[in-house]
Automatic annotation (TrEMBL):
The active site is at residue 56. Pfam families: Aldo_ket_red. The record marks 84 as: Lowers pKa of active site Tyr. PROSITE patterns: ALDOKETO_REDUCTASE_2 (PS00062), ALDOKETO_REDUCTASE_3 (PS00063). GO terms for molecular function: oxidoreductase activity. InterPro entries: AKR, Aldo/ket_reductase_CS, NAD(P)_OxRdtase_dom_sf, NADP_OxRdtase_dom. This is Aldose reductase. Residues 23-86, 98-240 form the NADP-dependent oxidoreductase domain.
Amino acid sequence: MALAQEPKTQSFNLLSGHSIPAVGLGTWKSGSQATTSVYTAIVEAGYKHIDTAYQYGIQEEVGQALQSAMEAGIERKDLFITSKLWPPKEGEVLELNMEGVWREMEKLVNDKLVRDIGICNFTISKLNNLLSFAHIFPSVCQMEMHPGWRNEKMLEACKKYGIHVTAYSPLGSSGGRDLIHDQTVDRIAKKLNKSPGQVLVKWALQRGTSVIPKSTKADRIKENVSVFNWSIPDQDFKALSNMPDQKRVLNGEELFVNKSVGPFRSVQEIWDNED
């Protein structure tokens, strides 16, 4: 009897008609290891989705990995590369012109320079504002999401408009909410004979979100994408979905807040007091 092989990846459909691979590789804080980790993810582990940003300072490393992957036979059209625009630096702007920025992003789609545009770290208030003038709706909203911060209000708001959600920091954080060593996660992982990381990735997928776990270790990169031919039983899924003490790991203070000149002068302003 032949055994079913683990599929390399699955995908979710987007408003644009394109699709986004269900599991991608996060690259924040990957540093010089990004070249090796991105190449390993694509060529050895079968990833089709890489998440990065200019602000991460690793564009050359990611670019080298993509070039090497294509030289190894991977076609660029099969890869989904996510990047991001960063908030302006101190003193560059006093108020964000969301509509002006979005119009320029829409031009990128119309000029066929990008296939999809999306948003990250949004609130319901910011989303409603954007949708009031957008000609092209965002295909994806990327947010911190894991059992320790389910972010259910934003998830439901995006579902209402057909906007797909990508979950970042799906494993929590060793400096904040360390879900890898959480007792509930560990219990379920042992029951299913899976790693805690696989359980957390699978939880995100079963919620209907894509997910971008970050790792620079080859074995973890491969492990995190081996999540498609099994499922978390309902009772265990509910246990993960009802974990107490909901709180963001990344509240954005270090990255986005400037108390003197803005445009965000407090954490509350970033999240529009919606938490």
